[in-house]
Amino acid sequence: MTTHPTLYYVPKTRATRARWLLEELGAPHQLVRLDPSKGETKTDAHTRRHPLQHVPVLESAEGAVFESCAICLHLAAGTPLLPPDGSYERALVYQWVFFGVTEVEQLLGKLAGERRKEPVDAGRVESFTKKLARPLAALDAALAGRDWLVGNRFTVADLVIGALLTWAERLELLAALPNARAFSQRVKARPAYQKAMAD
Ligand SMILES: N[C@@H](CCC(=O)N[C@@H](CS)C(=O)NCC(=O)O)C(=O)O
Description:
Bound molecules: glutathione
Strand order of the largest sheet: 2-1-3-4
Strand content: 5-15%
CATH class of the largest domain: Mainly Alpha
Number of strands: 4
CATH architecture of the largest domain: Up-down Bundle
Radius of gyration: 17 Å
Largest sheet: 4 strands, mixed
Mean pLDDT: 97
Distance between the termini: 29 Å
Helix content: 40-55%
Number of helices: 8
Structural class: alpha+beta
Shape: globular
């Protein structure tokens, strides 16, 4: 009997990337939704899957893999969502994935955290907003005159950056960035994105 990989996830977190990618691929899989408020990410079983007790984790017969972008790049290998190994386009996919998680994601997380605090520290909010301006403008420029970031078809780069730019849009950071805004609309129109976000 073939066992399909299992994705352990929490809705509307970084696990959504892997959840969304599985929907894009139409790949057979099982989903296990964990509820952190019930301690379900802190169990011994989940700690064996992820040493930091985080999601997502993809588990297959060979073992568990964590880190959302590693899971996405692994699942996309050999599909149109990831250009051929060694190609320039593959390098550009890596470029945007790492750009997303190192230059954008950390700051978005800090800004979102600051905005949730009471009272809000306006100085810190402004500082994170300012730091985000350059990487977000760089993405806006990269998207000028094109629908997708690499090779003008949807790839893992668009999925990772799409998850971040839709988040940036919810934080109202795209007002002056029309290409990024239009990209965010294209991303949100994808049925696989909608399915992954509907949990
Ligand atoms: N760099 C990791 C981040 C994983 C992470 O921080 N996951 C958070 C959700 S965004 C989590 O598991 N939270 C649940 C918990 O802490 O119980 C990735 O991209 O997979």
